[in-house]
Amino acid sequence: MVKDKKLVELIRERNDAQFSVGDVYLGKVSKIASSLNAAFINVGYEKDAFLHYFDLGPQFSSLNNYTQGVMNGKLKHSSLMYFKMLADIPKSGKISNQIQTGQNVLVQIAKEPISTKGPRITSHVTLAGRFLVLIPFAEKIAVSQKIKSGEERERLKKLMESIKPKGFGLIVRTVAEEKSVAELDADLNNLVNKWTECYNNLKTAKAPQKMLGEMGRTSVVIRDLVNASFSSIMVDDADLYAEIKEYLRTIAPEKEEIVKLYKGNMPIFDQYGIEKQIKAAFGRTVNMPSGAYLIIEHTEALHVIDVNSGTRIKSKNDQESNALEVNLEAAEEVVRQLRLRDLGGIIVVDFIDMYNPENRKKLHARLRELMKSDRAKNHILPPSKFGLVQITRERVRPQTIINTLEKCPTCHGTGEVEPPLLIIDKIENTLRYILSQQNGKGLVLLVHPFIYSFLNQGFPSLKMKWLLKYKRGIKIRELDSLQFLEYKILNKNGEELKIS
Predict the structure, then answer these.
(1) Which of 69, 302, 391, 441 lies in disulfide reach of 74, CB 3.0 to 4.6 Å?
(2) Residue 323's domain is classified under what CATH number?
């Protein structure tokens, strides 16, 4: 996602992606951990998923009863209209009183597998749509707090009460503001159909098995991000282009025309300067226009970001003013980096020290303002007296890691190179073969400047020895673009000779 030609969000989807946030699974209880008040559930991943008591959801008894009823063939319809709801489970109960080892449970992926941990799951199943979120076994209707108009909130709530099916709760999303009855009803029907699909899959399921998959990452991004401010969606794949247009036609017909199929000769990321920004943004060091820079380090427990003023010098301002300017610029880049890399958990930022409490307040306020555009839940503590700002950010997926380092073309990533004298032997053996076996004439040897100096040093030099030995002159030229131990041999026509 690009704003004012600047990369602000990068989302990667693997072709073999499994256990995505939102996927619904029928799992089997592997182990009860009473000391943690949690259970480990087999959902088919190499490591068991983690289910805490607080993630069971208040309607777990109803969900569990429904799951067993469907699998036993006692429930003949997906509708909850005639299903008898059970009482909510206690807020501070024991997980061993709710589930037992070997039991089948319906769960949803809340956090994807990260590092050495399996997925984090919940039994509080929710189905997200464009405008609504459907909550089975609940009756509550909630409207997004971001919809500020009291009249609009009341309209949406009354509308939902009139069309909501019995046994389901609803959350009205922010994008539902000012939407028509027809649009909201269509979205609701789509979600109810998804619940019916889950019911049909559950009838013949054997744990562990996926019951309902979230949409592809592309469609999820379109669903959650695209709004009136988007001016274009560029796609370089014909099938994906058709899929996106079809999806937008159902959820936002007015935006269908902004989807365009890219047919340029250059890769799409190169054409729009994305590749260059990725290389510049995902390294250990991130430079800023003013000359200041960030150092970003990752540990198992947290992420650490260090702010440095670098070459940024403004002699007109005092040290405190300079520190504030650098910190405010760094705050913007830090927030951008959190979204780009999808960093989660604990993030500690070491800003440049500021002694004026008002300046520290300005920095804290600026960070909070910038983080409002971040969809992930976050919390920012004020700067400490040591200049450290602690941030917690919701982590539901593994962070985006892009290796911006390339293998050394000389050692090919091994960290070891051949001795220079061995390269001299290789060059001479190649020349001997060309001169004796192919009767080569007018040869030009291209080498790195260091090797060039070595071949020409002393009396007699290696170049002179080759002349006396092979009775034929060989031109030697230095070429800065060659690697230290790289060489090329050209014929009299300037064509490179390849020796297999």
Answers:
(1) 69
(2) 3.40.630
Does residue 405 form part of some domain?
no
**Tokens (6 digits) for 28:** 């089997």
- The answer to whether position 14 is within a domain reads no
**pLDDT for position 133:** 92
Q: Give the per-residue pLDDT at 35.
A: 92
pLDDT value at position 465? 87
**pLDDT at residue 499, rounded to an integer:** 66
C-alpha distances out from residue 259 to 105, 227, 243, 252, 360, Å = 41, 13, 11, 12, 44
Position 229 scores a pLDDT of: 80
In angstroms, rounded to a whole number, what is the distance separating the alpha carbons of residues 2 and 274?
Answer: 9
Q: In which residue are the tokens 């001299």 written?
A: 424
pTM, 2 dp: 0.62
Same domain for 384 and 440, yes or no, is no
410, part of any domain: no
Q: What is the DSSP string of 3-25?
A: ETTEE-------TT--S-TT-EE
In which domain, by residue range, is 332 found? 282-393
* Residue 398 confidence (pLDDT): 63
The pLDDT of residue 102 is 92
d(CA 131, CA 156): 11
Question: Quick check: 108 and 126 in contact, CB under 8 A?
Answer: yes
181 shares its domain with 34: yes
Distance CA 112, CA 14 (A): 13
What's the CA dihedral at 366, 368, 374, 380 to 10 degrees? 130
Give the CATH number, domain containing residue 161.
2.40.50.140
* Domain co-membership, 291 together with 207: no
- What is the reported pLDDT for 95? 92
Of 311, 229, 310, 234, the residue nearest 268 (C-alpha)? 234
Collect the ranges in the chain with pLDDT lower than 70: 14-18, 214-216, 311-317, 396-412, 417-421, 499-500
Q: How many domains does the chain have?
A: 3
Q: Determine the Cα–Cα distance for residues 118 and 105; give it in Å rounded to an integer.
A: 17
Whether residue 383 is found in the same domain as residue 441 = no
pLDDT of residue 305: 94
Count of C-beta atoms within a 10 Å radius of residue 107: 25
Q: What is the pLDDT of residue 176?
A: 87
Three-state SS for 171? strand
- Amino acid, res. 319: Q
Q: What amino acid occupies position 434?
A: I
